[in-house]
Amino acid sequence: PGRGRLGLSVRQVQDVVDGTPAVFRTPVEVEIHDSRGSRRVRLSLEKRQEIFDLEAPERPVWVRFDKGGWIPKRLRETKEPEEWLAILAADDDANGRLDALAALGELARGARTVSERARLVEALARAVASDPLPALRARAATALS
Fold first, then answer.
1. Residue 37, H or E segment
2. Which of 24, 72, 66 is nearest to 48 (CA)?
3. Who contacts 92 (Cβ-Cβ below 8 Å, separation ≥6)?
4. What is the full DSSP assignment across 8-36?
5. Could you give the CA distance from residue 9 to residue 124 in angstroms, rounded to a whole number?
6. Has this prediction a pTM greater than 0.85?
7. pLDDT on residue 68
8. What is the pLDDT of residues 81-97, one digit of tens each?
């Protein structure tokens, strides 16, 4: 806040065995969505651990690493519930909404207060009723269970 910058930390944690390289060197697109809309930034992954300093005139509503899922990977993201809720509600990419469903289901299961759990369950229920993709509606129902 106040700097107009966003820090993005990327760590590659794959085991270096059976020909798996220590570093996958590849380009990646990161989507930054704020009140003015979305923009994509193309980054180049070159090291096992990197921190990228990106321009962000305001706090982003969400940040998506590899929007569209072009890189084969297992991704563990750390986001606040508000960011996951925004992705579920407005991301045009089904992969993003799918990730948000899984994260919100986990967050609902671990919610510390009844009101927080209710808020997350309500968002999942809206996805069951309104996501345009039947497969995502089914995943939302699974996340609710």
1. strand 37-45
2. 24
3. none
4. EEEE------TT--S---EEEEEEEEETT
5. 28
6. yes
7. 85
8. 999 999 999 999 999 99
